[in-house]
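Here is one chain, start to finish.
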Amino acid sequence: MIARYSLPEMAELWSDQARYTTWAEVEVLASEAQVLLGRVPASALEDIRRARVPSVARVAELERERDHEILSFLAAFCEDMPDDSARWVHLGMTSYDLVDTALGYTLARSCDLLIGAVERLRGVLVAKAVEHWDTACIGRTHGMHAEPTTFGHKLAGFAFAIDRSVRRLRDAREQVAVGTISGSVGTYALIDPFVEKHVCEALGLGVEPAPSQVVARDRHVQLVQAIATLGACVEQIAVEVRLLSRSEVREVEEPRTAGYQGSSAMPHKRNPTTSERLTGLARLLRGYAGMMLENVALWHERDLSHSSVERVALPDALTVAHYQVTAAADLVRGLEVFPDRMRAAIDQTNGLAYSSAVLADLLEGGSERERTYRMVQDAANGEDFFTLLRTEGIEAELPGPERFLVNHDVIHKRLENLRELEH
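Its structure:
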């Protein structure tokens, strides 16, 4: 992913140098297990442990000759090692024993980083929802004025959506945090399963129960689909901010720096550019999910068609998601809210926002439903609603937004339960 949408802690996990560092760690752990089995001399293990992690440049140089990254890495890893020790490196293993086990470890750490960021976004949403729990605003359905709600209620819905994403990501982390060291076509023919157990336990990974030489790619699909869903939930927040930021609405505004400039030509512009960026990034995340679905069906025990796809899609999906949720947390934390504008939008309806309350009162008073509905509907023509009701012979009291929030505390209690997760 380009630097613009990368945060350093996630980008570092997916750097080429970090990949080679993890590969070296897997090779050392595998050699440890072989020593414990009595297949590799302890003296060789000391040399393997002392070996330097190859540089990206050196592996690339060797790969130009070999056209095989893993063999090039192994050659570079063993360059300064005595031959009597180098011959024990990678014993009984095939390339993807190394690649997929290291990948599972990197995915687990990346998920932990992402989940932490998503939990912070959840916390910011909960705090903002509590702050604005009683800030009345007009609810809208189909983009049209409906009836009153509160801004805190809106944010509570987003907070619970993000909480569901946390749980989806935790489930997906469990599925991708696996490795396999089972040899060619996954039969353990030339390697003892103890090596796999030793390596995966040391890395905190589970084991692929029936490896085909590679880890099953449906695991990765589950993760990227969870990430795409997370992106859509962030997009929902961003779209709401964009809609409420329009000039004729202006109920909220994105946080601005002191030197903010919104347009090269129009100095008055205050564009919701962060929210628009979050929306665009959600589209990228949905695209990665589609790519990863294509990787599930490989030829026989394995082929290499998945490799080029996941070299891009996995790091990019995790990096973009991490950037997106971090930016979303900053957006919500600094969001400017204008309660007076929200109340004005309710009053702008000239009482129409209360039509459902009037209808309910009349029905409870014994009026016939179809006739009463039509009368209330006829009175709701954009002029003063209650004046027109009286011309229809209907006497109704003017309620306030509080009328629609009589059971609001029920949702607030649920929000408080979510708030407890932050502690």
